[in-house]
Each structure stands twice: as structure tokens, then as C-alpha cells.
Amino acid sequence: MQVERIGAIRTRLGECPVWDAARSRLWMVDCRSGELLCVDPDSGAEQRWQLPAPVGSFALNGEHECILALKESFALYCPSNNTLRTLAWIDDRHRHLRLNDGTPLPDGSFVAGTMHIHRQPGEAPLGGLYRLDGQGRLARIAAGLGVVNGPTMHPTQPYFYVCDSSERKIYRYAVNAKGELGAREVFVDTAGLGSAPDGCCFDNGGGLWTALVHAGAIVRFAADGSLDLRVDLPVKHPASLCFGGDNLSDVFVTTISDSERLSATGPLDGALLRVRGLGFTGAPLPRCSIRV
């Protein structure tokens, strides 16, 4: 196994890595700075686009666009001409509430969830999980989640997974034929690992990977929720991860130097990392196909 730094990138809150197989590029965001990045992992060359901060997450949409989850809205963005068009707003408003992590679904829609921080003991979180369909219509599909991270569909089974980092749990929802979520169940409780779970992705063997944001590691959970593999990293706060590279055999990890709530000053904190030689290949993610 080998861990290497990609280029000279240093983000405040590196999040949402997405592998673009058509271009052999890695996309990601610096949430606090509101920057979208496209990186050549071999040369380290990068392009950056400034967006309204904070950016919660994004997904590739078709060939030339992105769907963005901004603070309280979803937007369509075209990097080639720097055009941004708002599509929908969430209903809830609070100074400590914003959209956070998101993912494309196999039907081409986009799901993103919120984070509601600084809540009082017993205070129910606002927001939840929101789905933006192919026509740009927004609906809340789940509630009761404090800090949404790592939403992702199982690559072969009708289950939707999502972290509530405030509870240090990864939940699983059954998905019916209409795409509706059933009751949630706990898939994994990561409290015993000394961390909340953050970003997630699947390998093609059905293993769920997550970043242990407080423990400087990434881990793989088997289908039954048992811990299968732990990889300690030379950073304090890994935030998210995805498979990419040739045959989706590399794992790219985004990291934090200053998220406002978490900070670190080590030489690789905030860097983009590539982990090679893990012996797994990733399950490819779909692209969104939202046309408005």
C-alpha cells in the first residue's frame, strides 16, 4: 500500500471527491472557500472555479454541467462559461443550518442532506434529506438527521446508506420500486472507533468505505457491518473518499485543514491524497441527468 499527495492542493474543507472516468480527472470542492476543483492526478495540475460559499456538495450532470448543493439551494452550474442557475430552495431556514453532502442516484436525480449544528440538548434537527429529480423538482425524502454525510446507494441492492455524523452512525434505508425510502436501521455505529463517519463510497464487492474524520483513517465495512479493513493516514481529519484511476483501483481522499469546527496544521492536512495497492476496485457512480 502507498499513500501519496496529489499536487500542491491545500483545502480548508476538502470534500465530495468525484472521479470523472471520461476525462481521467478528479473533481472535488473546498466547501468553506466555495471552490470547485478539477485535478489531473498524474501531473497535479488543477483548475478552480469560485462559487458562492459554502458549497455542501456537487455531482456531475451530463457531460458539461454540475449540480450544486449550496447553503440553502440547489443550482445548475456550467464551468465552461461560469453560469449558475438556481433550481430550488429548501424550506427550512436557520443560521446554523446548511446543505451538506450529496450523491447522484441511478435514475439521474441528486440527493443531498443538511447539517444543523449547535443544537440544544433534545432539539430536533431541521432539514433532512432532499431529492432533486430530473425535472428540477425538489422533495424532502427523510428527516431527523443532524449532520448528513456520505449518502450513497448500494451498487447492486435496493438500499440507501447515509451517515449522521452527529450520532456517529451509518444508517440504511430500504428503497421501494417507486424510489421511496422505508424505515431506517443502524448499519454501523462508529463511536467505538473514536470518530464520526464522514464521506462514504462502495467497492464493487459491496464493501462500504468511510472516512473516520476524527481518527485519521479510512475503513471498510463488510456487508454485515463488521469492520473489514482500517487504513491509518498521515492526516488528522480525512473528510471524504472515492475510487478512481485506472480500473477504479485507487482511493482518493480529501482532507481538512480548517473546517471551522476541526483544524490541523500538519504538512498533509488539507491535501488531496491517493492510496494505491489496497486490492479493491470501486463501484462506478452514475451521473445526474437533470434537465430544466
Q: Give the overall average pLDDT.
A: 97
How many domains would you count in the coordinates?
A: 1
Total count of helical runs of at least 4 residues: 0
Specify the CATH homologous superfamily.
Answer: TolB, C-terminal domain
* DSSP strand content: over 45%
What is the spatial order of strands in the main beta sheet? 1-24-23-22
Distance between the termini: 44 Å
- List SSEs in N-to-C order: EEEEEEEEEEEEEEEEEEEEEEEE
List the uncertain runs: none
Q: Examine the secondary-structure arrangement and name the CATH architecture.
A: 6 Propeller
What class, by secondary structure content? mainly beta
State the total count of DSSP E strands: 24
What value does the Rg take, in angstroms?
17 Å
**How would you characterize the largest beta sheet?**
4 strands, antiparallel
Principal-axes geometry comes out as globular
Assembly category: single chain
